[in-house]
Amino acid sequence: MFAKTNNGIKYVQGMNEILAVLYHVFLSDKQFAEHVEADCFFAFTILMGEVRDCFIKVLDDSDSGIKARVTHLNNILRKVDEPLW
């Protein structure tokens, strides 16, 4: 459904792994279990609004694309925990 309503992004491998975590969290809380699919779709849509540039192939080399984000995360990790980096 997300791919059909977001033609610019469609489906990219890895989205299912993000959604799986949301599904697990919502399903494990009895308060959300009744509407788990709708709540997951809503949360996933909001989350994808924040990280959608990482899933658009033509933006891979841009400042907001996945390569720039990985470089930024790499720099943070080097500062915070150099042995792990």
How would you describe this protein?
- This protein is mainly alpha-helical.
- It has one domain.
- The chain has helices at about 1-5, 15-30, 30-35, 35-50, 65-80.
- α2 packs across α4 (about 35-50).
- What's the end-to-end separation, in Å? 38 Å
Query: What structural class results from the helix and strand content?
Result: mainly alpha
The biggest beta sheet reads: none
Total count of helical runs of at least 4 residues: 5
What proportion strand? under 5%
Please provide the ordered H/E string of secondary-structure elements.
Answer: HHHHH
Helix content: 55-70%
Uncertain regions spanning at least 5 consecutive residues: none
- Name the average pLDDT: 87
Integer tally of domains: 1
Count of extended strands: 0
| Inertia-based shape | flat
Give the C-alpha Rg.
16 Å
Blueprint (SSEs and pairs):
Layout: H1 2-5, H2 15-28, H3 30-33, H4 36-51, H5 66-80
Name some characteristics of this structure.
85 residues; mainly alpha
Summarize the model shown.
This protein has one domain (2-80). Helix content is 62%, strand content 0%. The protein has helices at 2-5, 15-28, 30-33, 36-51, 66-80.
